[in-house]
Design goal:
The structure is a single chain. The protein has about 270 residues and is α+β, with helices and mostly antiparallel strands. Helices cover about 45% and strands about 20% of the residues. It contains nine helices and nine strands. A hairpin with a 6-residue loop joins strand 4 and strand 5 (about 50-55). The protein starts with 5 loop residues before the first helix and ends with a helix.
């Protein structure tokens, strides 16, 4: 069984996984209190929107004789508004002088946050996507992969529309636009991608690869052909590429807007002079 620290357990261990923590408590007057290190967690408030320090303001004492079910609550030190709550179970093994600890769950949910731009791309399938995230976080690969595939297939038109909208602004004469319009009419996302022959603008590629092609290669795989572990890797890859794709779309529009503003400023400056 993996051995870790309280800090690493709370920050990086997914729910349902048991770990060993030898230095789990401090002792005061024969009472064992769970250690409360500051944590480095994502804060989603508008004031923060990034990784911040979280601190615990409540002590939790535990018994070394019985199972302990506890809630640990942390508060963002920066905005002092965002809470992170962990539901854990801990049992002390006397002979080995170590604690066996696991999480029932945590809120907000375990794992990296979903970017707002990704939710915009996902559209009406937010709840289905979050079910996929929950399956992925709990190591259920087949479930995660199936949910992600359903989300992308059902939002195929929205994904192509968003791509068309962005390319129309950054490269309005691009020949791929007509192919994307035809791809929207295909019943399946993967068939739509297969119909696209021209490359996307370079700014939308991920490490030199067309993101649609990357998603296609993963989603065209049969779920029955892979183990749960392999499906988990595929699901994680689909989510990562989808996040980055959404980010590239937003960034391309931002860069185009900044370029247009710069051109207009210089053009107006020339007229004034």
């Amino acid at each position: 069984m993996e051995e870790t620290t309280v800090k690493e357990f709370l920050e990086t261990t997914p729910p349902g996984k048991e770990v060993v923590i030898k230095e789990f408590t401090s002792v005061s007057q024969r009472t064992h209190y769970i250690l409360r290190p500051d944590l480095h967690l994502h804060c989603g408030t508008k004031q923060c929107e990034g990784i911040r320090f979280y601190e615990s303001r409540k002590s939790n004492w535990v018994s070394i004789e019985n199972y302990n079910n506890e809630y640990l609550t942390y508060l963002c030190r920066n905005c002092k508004r965002s809470l992170k709550t962990f539901s854990i179970r801990a049992k002390y093994v006397v002979d080995e002088k170590k604690w066996i600890v696991s999480k029932f769950g945590e809120k907000p949910a375990f794992g990296p946050p979903t970017p707002a731009r990704a939710f915009n791309l996902i559209g009406g399938e937010r709840d289905l996507f979050l079910l996929g995230r929950r399956n992925e976080n709990q190591g259920m690969g087949i479930g995660a992969f199936v949910y992600y595939r359903r989300v992308i297939e059902s939002q195929k038109i929205r994904i192509f529309d968003e791509l068309i909208r962005v390319i129309s602004k950054i490269s309005p004469e691009d020949q791929v636009l007509a192919e994307l319009e035809l791809a929207k009419k295909e019943t399946q996302f993967t068939k739509g991608v297969e119909a696209i022959k021209h490359a996307l603008p370079q700014s939308l590629n991920i490490n030199g690869y067309n993101p649609l092609t990357l998603l296609h290669s993963a989603l065209s795989e049969g779920v029955h052909e892979h183990s749960d572990e392999e499906c988990l890797e595929l699901a994680s890859s689909v989510r990562t590429v989808l996040f980055e794709f959404a980010e590239r779309l937003g960034q391309a529009l931002k860069e185009e807007a900044e370029l247009n503003a710069a051109v207009n400023r210089l053009a107006n400056q020339r007229k004034d002079s």
